[in-house]
Design goal:
The chain is of the alpha/beta class. The chain has helices at about 5-10, 15-20, 30-40, 45-60, 65-70, 75-95, 135-145, 165-175, 200-210, 225-230, 240-245, 245-250, 270-285, 305-310, 315-330, 345-350, 365-375, 400-405, 415-420, 425-435, 435-455, 460-480, 485-500, and strands spanning about 100-110, 150-155, 180, 185, 190-195, 210-215, 255-260, 290-295, 335, 355-360, 410-415. An eight-stranded parallel barrel has the order 1-2-5-6-7-8-9-10, surrounded by eight helices. It has a two-stranded antiparallel ribbon with strand order 3-4.
Length: about 500
């Protein structure tokens, strides 16, 4: 935690040379004129052209801007149905039949910025401010682990109270938490970070403590809108400092990075294009695109009128379309649908290609511990708007959501194997594009789901979970890929070990 004043701290954050080094002839990669031209020139697309583009997606090739613009301009609802089905087919081809779960942990809501849509905004007097102590971080992690989670994403406002040293300390604290569950220890195996843009030297500090994926959302790629909702006299008002946050992460050795936009600030089609341009520039400069893409929608937030009155709020139909186009445009990236969305919406978009979601989510500072205390006192642990960045749409437990996923025929995964086997960055990208990583994902999903069913599942979830696991094992036995070498026998041996009580084994 920084000891300097807020004003002095803000002055030293932005490093202009760590923006300029990525520019091309002084320009960034978001060319608004070009994006608008692509969108205007591809209206009323020919059906066969659209179907040709879908074949390219099925070949796990990233689309070009004119191709993505073509998909965004489809108006034929029957053609959209083909696109939805293709999105799911692409997802299964790359990532197989599993959904990865994680839990967010909000560590502090102090912020120097004044974003028009955010409950954390500096001038919001309704927000109740606090940061977690390390003891509280430990308590929060303990509650999350007892739900059955193995992955966590930690979230912070931008403020000297939650600077890089504080972030690093929270990550170390979370990794150190071990919880005794049925006579064996359970823990968080991967900590991802959603935080403000940082310098390369600060990002190296996070790399050293074992950060997973580094996630920074541009919010909107449309520069006039960005300027309107992010005041110029704030850190977040610097469009390019944020735009190149993930480039700096790559240079710092953090090779899994995550992009995202807050849909509802501007025309959703433009921001889908912006996300594609971001992926293209990461590929161009580092040979690796984004590990994941997020697409949160604007939701109500305390003290932020824009969160409910924007002229660009995205309806459910268009939301499903934008997720589908992202799946088809960047087929190798994971897609994250969060508890911002209501259960019915999550269920719908999971079937067009999403790969990750959260559950049992609490986003108030200290929310997990407070909810546990309320439960022990038989009280209602409802959301408190003034303690959160925004309001959630899905407050169901992890067990409930896992059961629903199983009823949909999909398997839950808590796998973190790729990161510990060195399958990150360009290595995992090659495996994803070659549709190989999903084969390992399938095996590790079964192993980690076995852990969950034995250690945490309710009887009703375990009952349907057993059927899903058996179906997956039957498929594994029949797929030629697993007959190579000793892969099938190795997997079956590990499965027996997990069934006998061993934990954290992977391929």
């Amino acid at each position: 935690m920084s000891s300097v004043s807020v004003k002095e701290w803000v002055k030293q954050v932005v490093k202009q040379d760590e923006i300029d080094k990525y520019l091309i002839n002084g320009e960034d990669f978001i060319n608004e004129t070009e994006i608008n031209s692509h969108l205007s020139k591809t209206v009323n697309p020919d059906k066969q052209k659209v179907r040709d583009i879908l074949q390219k997606s099925l070949a796990i090739e990233r689309l070009e801007p004119d191709e993505t613009a073509t998909l965004l301009n489809v108006t034929d609802e029957e053609l959209w149905k083909e696109m939805y089905a293709t999105g799911l087919e692409v997802k299964r081809k790359v990532y197989d039949n599993r959904i990865v779960f994680f839990a967010p942990l909000y560590c502090g809501n102090f912020c120097v910025n004044n974003c028009a849509y955010c409950g954390f905004r500096r001038d919001n007097t309704e927000e109740k401010r606090r940061i977690l102590t390390m003891d509280e971080v430990q308590q929060e992690a303990t509650v999350v682990i007892n739900e059955g989670h193995k992955r966590m994403i930690v979230v912070y406002g931008e403020h000297p109270k939650t600077d890089v040293d504080y972030i690093a300390e929270t990550i170390r604290t979370i990794y150190d938490v071990k919880v005794l569950v049925k006579n064996r220890y359970s823990s968080i195996r991967r900590v991802n970070v959603n935080a403000a843009p940082m310098s390369i030297s600060d990002l190296r500090k996070l790399h050293e403590v074992g950060i997973g994926t580094y996630q920074v959302f541009q919010e909107t790629y449309h520069k006039p809108t960005y300027k309107t909702v992010h005041p110029a006299n704030t850190l977040k008002g610097n469009y390019r400092w944020r735009l190149y946050a993930l480039h700096r992460a790559m240079d710092a050795g953090v090779d899994d990075v995550a992009v995202g936009a807050l849909f509802g600030l501007y025309d959703w089609r433009f921001d889908v294009m912006g996300l594609l341009y971001h992926a293209i520039d990461l590929e161009r400069q580092f040979g690796v695109g984004p590990h994941t893409i997020s697409f949160p929608r604007l939701t109500p937030a305390s003290g932020a009128e824009l969160s409910t009155k924007s002229n660009h709020l995205v309806n459910n139909t268009d939301f499903k379309k934008l997720v589908t186009v992202l799946r088809l445009s960047v087929p190798y990236s994971g897609l994250i649908i969060t508890a911002r969305e209501e259960a019915e919406i999550k269920q719908d978009v999971l079937m067009v290609g999403c790969t990750q979601t959260d559950a049992s989510t609490k986003i108030g500072i200290g929310g997990y511990t407070e909810a546990l205390k309320a439960l022990s006192l038989a009280q209602n642990a409802s959301q408190i708007k003034e303690k959160q960045q925004f309001m959630l749409g899905d407050t169901r437990s992890l067990d409930e959501v896992i059961r629903e996923i199983a009823e949909m025929g999909m398997i839950t995964s808590f796998c973190t194997a790729g990161y510990r086997c060195g399958r990150t960055g360009d290595k995992i990208m090659g495996l994803l594009k070659g549709c190989v990583e999903g084969r390992f994902c399938k095996l590790n999903a079964v192993l980690t789901f076995r852990e969950y069913l034995d250690d945490f599942a309710s009887p009703s979830t375990k009952e349907i979970g057993e059927m899903i696991i058996q179906k997956e094992i039957d498929e594994i036995r029949q797929i030629p890929f697993y007959q190579k070498g000793n892969l099938l026998q190795t997997f079956l041996g590990l499965y027996d070990q997990v069934s006998s009580g061993e934990r954290d084994v992977f391929i």
